[in-house]
């Protein structure tokens, strides 16, 4: 369109060709100009305005098409990025849900363990108190059982005595003038080396 208008303008401004016969040498030369018709100034201005309008329209159309292509490309890229982001967000949500489930299970397990630990602590405290009570009772019983032990000093060591318990019962009957021999559970000498003949006998 622009090329067509330019060609039209050049054709209208260019003088039209015409045949000029060379005058004979004997005739005076005529200064008859062969110029075409003159172009009005208004027509030139109209042509320039029309060219400007057409060029502006063409530039506008081409710019619109270029922007349209670029916008379409940018839109496609944004859609691709949004799709990737959507997939990533979905994966993150899935991971977060799995983590929440794991954390919930761990919290339940910890609560159960806490309850078990509290129960065990109570049992340990009870058993510790019971053990202390039994220990005190055993110590008391042992102390009471030792009250009936009699330590006899000065009994000569004779090798002919085979039954120490019976011999001590007889000795106690004679010493305290009892009617019958006392009942003894056990009688033995202290656990120490046998003394010499010059030393005192072992208890």
Describe, in plain words, how this protein is organized in 3D.
This protein has helices spanning 2-13, 41-145, 164-176. With 203 residues, it is mainly alpha-helical. Helix 1 runs antiparallel to helix 2 (41-145). Mean pLDDT is 76; it is low at 1-7 and 12-35.
* Number of contiguous helices: 3
Count of strand segments: 0
Span of the ends, CA to CA: 146 Å
SSE topology string? HHH
Could you estimate the helical fraction of the residues in percent? 55-70%
SSE blueprint:
Layout: H1 2-13, H2 41-145, H3 164-176
Keywords: Coiled coil
Region (Disordered): 15-39
InterPro entries: Transposase_22
Features:
203 residues, 64% helix
In short:
By secondary structure, the protein is mostly helical.
């Amino acid at each position: 369109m622009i090329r067509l208008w330019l060609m039209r303008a050049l054709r209208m401004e260019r003088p039209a060709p015409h045949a000029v016969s060379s005058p004979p040498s004997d005739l005076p030369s005529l200064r008859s100009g062969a110029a075409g018709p003159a172009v009005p100034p208004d027509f030139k201005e109209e042509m320039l305005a029309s060219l400007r309008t057409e060029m502006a329209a063409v530039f506008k159309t081409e710019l619109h098409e270029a922007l349209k292509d670029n916008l379409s490309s940018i839109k496609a890229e944004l859609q691709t990025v949004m799709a990737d982001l959507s997939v990533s967000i979905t994966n993150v949500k899935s991971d977060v849900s799995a983590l929440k489930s794991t954390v919930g299970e761990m919290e339940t397990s910890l609560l159960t363990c806490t309850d078990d630990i509290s129960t065990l602590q109570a049992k340990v405290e009870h058993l510790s108190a019971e053990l202390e009570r039994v220990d005190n009772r055993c110590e008391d019983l042992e102390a009471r059982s030792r009250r009936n032990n009699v330590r006899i000093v000065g009994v000569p060591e004779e090798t002919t005595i085979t039954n120490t318990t019976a011999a001590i019962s007889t000795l106690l009957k004679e010493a305290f003038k009892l009617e019958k021999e006392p009942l003894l559970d056990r009688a033995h000498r202290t656990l120490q080396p046998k003394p010499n003949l010059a030393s005192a006998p072992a208890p």
